[in-house]
Amino acid sequence: ELMTGYTMLRNGGVGNGGQPWVLRWSSRIRLTWLSFTLFIILVFFPLIAHYYLTTIDDADDAGKRIFGPRTGNELCEVKHVQDLCRIRESVSEELLQLEAKRQELNSEIAKLNLKIEACKKSIENAKQDLLQLKNVISQTEHSYKELMAQNQPKLSLPIRLLPDKDDVTFPLPKSNRNCRLHNCFDYSRCPLTSGFPVYVYNSDDYPFGSFLDPLIKQAFEATVRTNVYVTENANIACVYIILVGEMQEPVMPKPTELEQQLHSLPYWRTDGHNHLIINLSRKSETQNFIYNISTGRAMIAQSTFYDAQYRPGFDIVISPLVHAMSEPNFLEIPPQVPVKRKYLFSFQGEKIESLRSSLQEVRSFEEEIEGNAPADYDDRIITTLKAVQDSKLDFVLVEFTCKNQPKASLPTEWALCGERDDRLELLKLSTFALIITPGDIHLVISSGCAMRLFEALEVGAIPVVLGEQVQLPYNDVIRWNEAALIIPKPRITEVHFLLRSISDNDLLAMRRQGRFLWETYFSTSDNVFSTVLAIIRTRIQIPAAPIREETAVEIPHRSGKAAGTDPNMADNGDLDLGPVETEPPYASPKYLRNFTLTAMDIYRNWNSAPGPFHLFPYTPFDPVLPSEAKFLGSGTGFRPIGGGAGGSGKEFQAALGGNVPREQFTVVMLTYEREEVLMNSLERLNGLPYLNKVVVVWNSPKLPSEDLLWPDIGVPIMV
Fold first, then answer.
1. Which family does the record assign (predicted)?
2. Alpha carbon distance 690, 604 (integer Å)
């Protein structure tokens, strides 16, 4: 009925005749009721729920009632909630205890890890200590063996054999012309270990001494006083030297008188064996007065020889003594570059006397080829050189007639023209200097040719010697083909082509070698005398005397704190520098190769200072050096490293079967006021294996700072 009425109201009162106002009234009542119901639900219900929820937790006893009396089921629910709360509290306590145990276990694990790391480090340290102990034991054993070896000499000195009598006679050669070392020299007076003592006669004690050139005698005496081989004890001397020239003209002793004076020398011993007669030349004119004197078995050293007089391997061709009492002025020597100079070649000279006159019939080339060669090629040389000069292909200067009076000369020898200064000025402008040998084939060498050679080498003009039969100074020990051109006279027509075909590099190399030869063997009286002694000493295979030790001025310095590099823990990457030496610096063994070098390498010539087998008064090899010298990183140094075996240390010695002595090396550093860089470089040397010492060459006139602290690298630092 209600639904029916409601339906009717919606249909506008159909069936009851309803009115429209009734419908409007019922709609307002419905909306008001709905709004009031929603307000009650939205306001009062949350308030009731909030009150209940806030008071249920505050009920302490079972008798408290919220909404009236509770039933038994409600009491069970409250007890269940309380049990859950107690369980939560218990679980929380257990979780806290577990967290505490976890933290305790973590701390114990950390302590154990620290102990493990400490054990590992101690194991590594123990390994290092063990390795170091092994090295110490090995080095101690090696040192013990070395000390035992020192008690057993490696080599005993040979017995010195001296003749029982001073007048002992040797088997006489057929003639003095056949004299050589094996039949005219007494080796028993020159043992290998004698040191090559040389006794020099005082010329003033003999009559011929008053005829000597004062400058030559004074220069010779000054040289003798400073030479290391000269001794005043004639009884132990190996070689006896007497100066007989250059004589002053025109007053000269007769040949018979000079011969008697020589034979009356106190140590002449009937035939003059082991004697050396020196005839120095200061001028171009030659005095070969010894040619007519019987010198027995004495050796002769001079600048002029005839073939009947010269004994190869026994006599010595020496250079003239131009700078007798004065050192050459090196500031006036021209530079070696440019290579080519104004004149391709030059020659000035005049021939006083020839073997065949230019007026005689000139033989044709065909006649000479048939075997009848002319005795003198000088006429053809003159014609050819004049043709080259007239061709104007190159600037050349040849003069065959002196403007002034020519110097005195031997027959068939080209005399020098002008003064020495004028000749040097021309040679300074010449690339090559022609030297025409005497036409006499029996004249082996003349003082004039030696003077031309001396002047050419002095100013850097490359000598061109026309005549292959000539014996240049010190020819048996100097490789003259490295500094000069020696051309046979028949090739005079090819000389111009040959000189133009030489490259600049070869010209410079020859000029440099010529300068080296001149400075080392020709320039001063000391060099000439020392070269003569070196030739004799090398021929009889006696080692050179060591260089005199000169103590360097050491700069005092203070050592600071030790360098921070740990030698055992240094990280060198893949580079193994070897173990660190734990013992004091090891001294090098004695140098024992002097005899080997003297016997094997008879002579060599280099563009640097000669060694013990070179023609030089001293050797750079000291038989007892405190340590080896080596430039760091180069592997080469002042003297052969490791005896030439190429290594260092006792490990390398063991690798070669123990035949190479153990050695260390010295670092040499050159510095110039770069103190910070120097200190850093020195610190990096700390712990370097096989290091003996460090030598710092302070290359500055200003001394290092007094407050500069030098690092302590475990080895001496010498400044």
1. Belongs to the glycosyltransferase 47 family.
2. 33
Q: Taking a C-beta distance cutoff of 8 angstroms, is the pair 537, 544 a contact?
A: yes
State the Cα–Cα distance between residues 461 and 597, nearest whole angstrom. 34
Please tell me the total number of residues recorded for the chain in this structure.
Answer: 719
b/e string for 520-532 if b means 16 or more Cβ within 10 A?
bbbbbbbbbbbbb
* 632-668 tens-digit pLDDT: 333 333 333 333 444 455 665 666 565 555 667 889 9
Closest by CA position to 633, among listed 671, 661, 667: 667
Q: What angle do CA 438, 440, 445 make, to 5 degrees?
A: 55
Nearest of 500, 497, 455, 454 to residue 473 by alpha carbon: 454
pLDDT on residue 641: 35
Tokens linked to 332: 């006036």
Please say whether the beta carbons of 477 and 535 come within 8 A. yes
Residue 211 is given by DSSP the state G
- Residue 295: closest CA among 265, 318, 250, 321: 265
CATH class of 343-353+376-523: alpha beta
Q: Which secondary structure element, helix H or strand E, spans residue 36, and what is its range?
A: helix 20-56
How far is 668 from 631, CA to CA, in rounded Å? 6
- Looking at residue 419, the DSSP 8-state letter turns out to be -
Asked if 437 and 467 count as a contact pair (C-beta separation under 8 A), the reply is: yes
CB atoms under 10 Å from CB of 632, counted, come to 17
Mean pLDDT value across residues 540-557: 83
Q: Is the pLDDT of residue 609 over 50?
A: no
Look-up: residue for tokens 């008188």?
Answer: 257
List pLDDT tens digits, range 245-272: 888 877 778 888 999 999 999 999 888 9
Q: Quick check: bond before 250 cis, omega within 30?
A: yes
Look at residue 279 and give its three-state secondary structure.
Answer: strand
Q: Which residue has tokens 């028949």?
A: 490
DSSP 8-state assignment for residue 145: H
For residue 634, the 8-state DSSP code is T
Longest CA pairwise span in the chain (Å): 196
In the chain, the amino acid numbered 674 is R
The per-residue pLDDT for range 150-179, each reduced to its tens digit, is: 665 566 667 766 655 554 556 667 777 889
- Cα 116 to Cα 122: distance, rounded to the nearest angstrom: 10
Residue 44: other Cβ atoms inside 10 A? 10
| 638 vs 633: CA distance, rounded Å | 14
Cβ atoms within 10 A of the Cβ of 608, count? Answer: 9
Residues whose CB falls within 8 Å of the CB of residue 99, separated by 6 or more in sequence, listed in order: none
Q: 575 burial class (0-12, 13-18, 19+ CB within 10 angstroms)?
A: exposed
Most confidently modeled range among 291-305, 565-579, 608-622, 626-640 = 291-305
Sequence letter at residue 537: R
Q: Residue 589 contacts by C-beta under 8 Å, 6 or more apart in sequence?
A: 661, 663
> pLDDT tens-digit profile of 294-303?
999 999 999 9
What is the DSSP secondary-structure string of 548-583? PP----PPP-EEEEEPS--TTT---TT----PPP-S
Q: Which residues of 113-135 are buried (b: 16+ CB within 10 A; e: fewer)?
A: eeeeeeeeeeeeeeeeeeeeeee
